[in-house]
Amino acid sequence: MEITVHHYIVISCLLFIIGIFGVLTRRNLLIILMSVELMLSAANLALVAFSRFSSHLDGQVAVLFVFIIAAAEAAVGLGIVIAAFRHTSGVRVTSWKELKG
Amino acid sequence: MIEQLLQHISIPTLMCLIPLLPLLGAIANGKMYLFSTRSQWKPSHALSGTIAVVMPLISFLIVAVLFYIAMGLEDSHSVSTGPLFTWFGGTQWAVTIGLKLDQLSLIMALVVTGVGSLIHLYSVGYMSHDDGFAKYFAYLNLFLFFMLLLILGDSLPLMFVGWEGVGLCSYLLIGFWFTDIEKAKAGKKAFIVNRIGDFGFVLGIFFIWQALQPTAQPGDAILSFSYISTHAAFLAPVATAATLLLFLGATGKSAQIPLYVWLPDAMAGPTPVSALIHAATMVTAGIYMVARLNFLFVLAPTTLNVIAIVGCATAFFAATMGLVQDDIKKVLAYSTVSQLGFMFLALGVGAFSVAIFHVMTHAFFKALLFLGSGSVIHAMDGEQRLSMYGGLRKHLPVTFTTFLIGTLAIAGIWPFAGFFSKDAILWHVYSSGHFWLWLIATLAAGLTAFYMFRLVGLAFFGKRNPAGPHHVHPENSVTMLLPLVVLAVLSIIGGWVGVPHAMGGHDHIMTWLAPLFPTALHEAGNESTELFMGLGSMTWGAIWAIIAWILYSQHRGWADQMAARFKRCYTLLVNLYYVDQIYDAVVVQPLLWFSRSVLWQTVDAVLIDKILVGGSARIARLFGRVGTAMETGLVPHYVFLLVLGSVVVLGWMIL
Amino acid sequence: MIEAYLFYFFAVTTVLLAVTVVVQPNPIGAAVSLVGTFFSLAALFVLLHAHFVAIMQIILYAGAIMVLFIFVIMLLNLEPEKVKLRTIAGNRLVQGSAALYLAGVIALAFFGWRQFFTQGVVANEMEGTIEAVGKLLLTDYLVPFEMTSVLLLVAIIGAVILARKPVE
User: Is the pTM above the cut of 0.80?
Assistant: First the structure.
């Protein structure tokens, strides 16, 4: 039983959907950020899998860039979390309604 | 001296200066007035008055010089600037701006600038107590600019610019004292009634353009008078329609039936304005236009008949309306309408040069009469009712003398100016075979003498009405008296340029104008008949004058008895045949009803306001509500929409 | 054969731990589950012969980033969130669209791409070693690689400015 690129893609899709699900349903800003990390990881998995099955290493280089972006995103995102916490003493996203029309 | 002048300045430049100088005066005075409204500084009356008088005076001198030059020219007696520049046009035709002075426009320009200068001078005295001194002269100079453009323009569109411009100035000056709502309304009435005429004029121009367009070579100025006259044959099919429409324009501007109603109301303006615009110059624009386009009008005998009948009817009815007016200026206004009717009558029977002759003499004596009435009104503290006057000849000797001269002129007494021109009109009407028109016109001429002497009798003879102003201001303003005297002299000698051969004269004006107009449409009558009719018409006028003089200065009771005797007739005349009321009921009220209930309450309020404006606002508000509902302010909702959007885009790209 | 078993084992682990992340009420629990997810992902990378990426996944993600997360959680001293079934499931709109999306993915995967699962694509023998990836990174991707340093610098400054106390 051969493991093909499609198996990895299915896992990647599932991870991505779980990530979106987390982003959409959770109210805790930290867990939303973690779900975003899950989505990024799903992309990483797809990139590596395509790299493996297409005889190019460029996909893996791209993954390294995604790491860096994830690190930057985590740094800024967590900075925002701290600032928001200081502002409203909580990290529930539903407590911020200033944009209501 | 003229040769030296011409070495430094060309004739076209001089011609351009004629209308431009009054424009310059208008701009200078207008600027000064506008400036004075925003600051403490007030232009001195001497400064704005000098500018306003000197500009037309220089124009008059230039016209005189050009007249002298043109007289010396061998062939055509006309000078022209040629096309100065192209105003607008199509691929096949163009409308160029150019000025032209020929025999006809020279006479008109001389009258306009000459009488205009005198009236400007008179205005300096008349308006000396008015706050809007500079504004008044700005309007008056602007009027002269447009009038000269109308006369000098060498094409129909340029003439139309002047035509509209004088209408504008007329409106501005009638409503000059616009704080009085009646005067503002009079200005509005004049403007609106003139719009009806101008509508006809524009349509007439379009007819001519339509007919001439196929004949044009690229670059031809097809609406210039010279082009129209050389291609008049092409206009034969549309001549009747076009000329009738143009004549409609003339009835508006020159106050003929059915559009005369604005002119009596126009007396709301300052009296010098009535003299200049509503008697001497602007109202003769219609006659000038018909004379200018005579080659077109002779192609349409129907139109000429219509013009003759309308002119004759106007002359008669206006004269009857003038019989019973109590307002001194109203009498003169109806007299003007009546005299304009005489001019149109002359045009209608093909005696174009006679009409122009009458325009000229009428300008002299009617301006004189108006200025004289202004002098009376000025002396009586603005009182205009004849019944409040009486016995003024001792208080205002110069005014009385000059006014009497004007009255004799308009009544057609030999050897005053009006005699020659009016007699020429009657003679041409008679000799062209229009017997009934001649009869009515003769009657109207008699009535003219009657109402004018009634005016003189009521104002200058008899006893002062104790109800009138107690104090009569003496006449001592030189600026007001000088024009009166000059115009009085002109009213005496002005007619001598047209003494017919039958009376041993040389008829200079007919000879001068002859090249422009078609040779008489009918064979000249017997010279002895002409002489006899001249004598008859003078006697006829004198009889009516004496009757009026007896009735109104010797035995005023008789006049009242007559009014009581013919009460219905008198009421009809006092109410001016109810024409204003009829127009109101037939035209104005239906129009108002239509505007109010249909256009305003239905189209504007419901259709435009509620459905279009309000409807689009409601639709925008609906979208706004939907958009507002989407903005919950909750981050998960925004993320959800983001995901939804990317899913849609991705799905569209994959599938 | 052993490779296939390993794949299925780590695939299932990854998905299960990922689900734990999003349904865990306690942020600390979620973070720990996320670390587990990253570890099993690293194992999947190893199965894909991407050794360098796998090592970086553990060092960068599981090490650095997750430590940052846990620091922040502890710094803020957060209460566990009360996760109700309704909160997890979201409202009907979210449920519906999530189901639709899932169904779409599965349908695409199993109907649209069925032949790919059976015919397969042969994996090549290329190894994602440090040498190979590093060489590529420092030759073809040198400029983007250097640009990331600028990005990180900007992120650091941004984080510092966001996180410090507002200046009075």
Answer: no
